[in-house]
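Researcher: Re-running this chain for the archive, since the previous output was lost when a drive failed. Same request as before.
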Amino acid sequence: MKLEAKTMESARDSSPLLREKLRALAETQRGRPQAFRLRADLLAQGRANIPVAATDDLTVMVKVYASGGENALHAHPTEDHSFIILQGAATFYDDEGEMTTLRANEGILVPKGSLYRFHAVEREGPLVMLRVGTPNVAMQDRSATRVSPSGDYLQGDSKENRTVEWKVLEGRTFG
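Model: Regenerated structure tokens:
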């Protein structure tokens, strides 16, 4: 069965709905290989998380950020994950400041517990990344999936995590 990343249907997901979609992907394909296609609408504003495949131990998502979009400094205490840039560029920071700027076909591995944040480099246009994480965050206690530097739970689609309403760039897609 070939799974296709839904475009903006998944982009509106709140953290609880995103977790449920990841859990459902893991359940429906239990024990079977999952082929998938990466596609997404590009954004003029905001960001989107689009789940494409999952098992109990792994998640694969497309992340789309409008030019200049960002998130807050945070850590995932129980999840190792990686970002691979597919389009655009992102500057990554740790708790001490700027680490690196990555462009298409470059990536970063973020070990569990590492504080980081990133932003889409404005002059490079919309950012599209592949995010692969282990274990599947939907199978974990929600309060331990993303934390602020003080260790408090930080919901991914919250104002504190710099979430803004998203707007699609009409007629522009990735994939």
